[in-house]
Amino acid sequence: MRATAFVRSSALAVAMAGAQVLPLPVAEARPVSRTAQETTAVYDEVWRLVRDRFYDAKLLGLDWDALGEKHRATYAAASSDAQRSAAINALLGELGVSHTRHYTPDETAYYELADIFRYPLRRELPKHFTDGTVRYTGIGMFTRDIDGKTFITAVFPNMGADRAGLLAGDEIIAADGQPFEAIGSFRDKTGKKVELEIRRTANGDTQKITVEPHAIEPGKAFHTALRSSARIIQHNGKSIGYVRVWSYAGGNYHETLENVLSEGRLKDADALIWDLRDGWGGAQPSYLNVFNPHGPTLTLKGRTGAERIVDFRWNRPVTMLVNGGTRSGKEVLAYGFKKNKFGEVVGETTAGALLAGTSFMLSDGSLLILAVQDAEVDGERLEGKGVAPSVEVPFDVRYSAGQDPQLDRALEVLSGSM
User: What's the CA gap between 364 and 244, in Å, rounded?
Assistant: First the structure.
């Protein structure tokens, strides 16, 4: 299987219409009586894939046999998919690298990554998804568990969570009176109502918000979210454009960015905020050319007078937003943007997750992402290090009630540079 620079295809959010198509069952019920080999079959599958495909043939000097034994008993004793996955990730965690993790169908990332890697998984996907199309049911948001609580970290524009009035920073306490689950709370509920109980301030009262889940095709929805995010913000007498790229796993995302800048909502903006926070990577270094003022812009015009711009260049002020969720190919862009002084990089140090990974659909339908190549940028290894911003702005998303100090600072930076 060909290694794919993580992440490099497509990715997440909410499709606004269409009948729900749920994945076929991905894990068969296990019999009560199992041999030791049957009990740990998937665990051993992961162990062997790491041994045979991990980017460092010496496995970073670790005793992989001993580590396999160390975590195998925990896996064998587990009584749920979540516990089994935790045991596998404890094993993978011994490697201490990015792009190496196990995912189950109870996680939104499972569906996002299955779609991102849909080409290398093209033979396996039809076994687990109707017609091979990755779909799940949700409302279009990112969440993160922090200190045992679940917080919304981002809401996709014009999608279910946004339409219901949910905000980044909201703590989700329950769904229909049950503990919240990223997938389970919405499964089999396309087009139905789900009542979320949230808390917006740290010591405030809870409130009920009704949402309507929709079928999500990750790649299409990330693309819709990118286009929908583009807007003009009036600040200190300037028209400042804003656009957020949720995933760069495919050239279509960058094509849409160029279109938005050259002839879309942001074509007349005085300056630009390019938001690369959170989501997935997959970006190519060449994407930075759009902000290189020294290259030519070719305009093609047909007999009808219609024009098409090739290799569009943005020659007005621009600022990039990054945080600890800016990963992989997006970090390459942050590195080059900062090094070439295209503009200020505002936010927090990026994830330091820059290895080349690929995907494996395991025998039970769960997913393994595995680092299969090391990576350097201009001879510098960013893995475990990341890219520091030129303007540091910490941001604790918890109970932020939709406020965004990093965006606010970017606006100030740009208005002061014009």
Answer: 35
**Separation of alpha carbons 291 and 232, rounded Å:** 19
Report d(CA 186, CA 260) in Å as an integer: 33
Q: Is 76 exposed, middle or buried (0-12, 13-18, 19+ CB in 10 A)?
A: middle
Per-position b or e across 292-320, b if 16+ CB within 10 A of its CB: eeeeeeeeeeeeeeeeeeeebbbebbbbb
Assess contact for 337 and 343: CB atoms under 8 A.
yes
Q: What is the pLDDT of residue 383?
A: 97
Other Cβ atoms within 10 Å of 143 Cβ, number: 18
3-state secondary structure the chain: CCCECCCCCCCCCCCCCCCCCCCCCCCCCCCCCCCHHHHCHHHHHHHHHHHHHCCCCCHHHCCHHHHHHHHHHHHHHCCCHHHHHHHHHHHHHCCCCCCCEEECCCCHHHHHHHHHCCCCCCCCHHHHCHHHCCCEEECCEEEEEECCEEEEEEECCCCHHHHHCCCCCCEEEEECCEECCCCCCCCCCCCCCEEEEEECCCCCCEEEEEECCEEECHHHHHHHHHHHHCEEEEECCEEEEEEECCECCCHHHHHHHHHHHHCCCCCCCCEEEEECCCCECCCCHHHHHHHCCCCCCEEEECCCCCEEEECCCCCCCEEEEECCCCCCHHHHHHHHHHHCCCCCEEECCCCCCCCEEEEEECCCCCEEEEEEECCCECCECCCCCCCCCCEECCCCCCCCCCCCHHHHHHHHHHHHCC
Give the list of residues 6+ apart from residue 259 with CB closer than 8 angstroms, or none. none
The per-residue pLDDT of the chain, averaged, comes to 89
Between CA 98 and CA 200 the distance in angstroms is 32
Assess contact for 228 and 157: CB atoms under 8 A.
yes
Closest residue by Cα to residue 14 from 227, 152, 281, 218? 218
User: What is the model's pTM?
Assistant: 0.88
Is 209 in contact with 174 (CB distance < 8 Å)?
Answer: no
Gap between the Cα atoms of 399 and 170, Å rounded: 6
Q: What is the C-alpha separation between 101 and 121, in angstroms, rounded? A: 16
Residues written for the chain: 418
pLDDT higher than 50, residue 65: yes
**Would you place residue 38 in the very low, low, confident or very high pLDDT band (cuts 50, 70, 90)?**
low
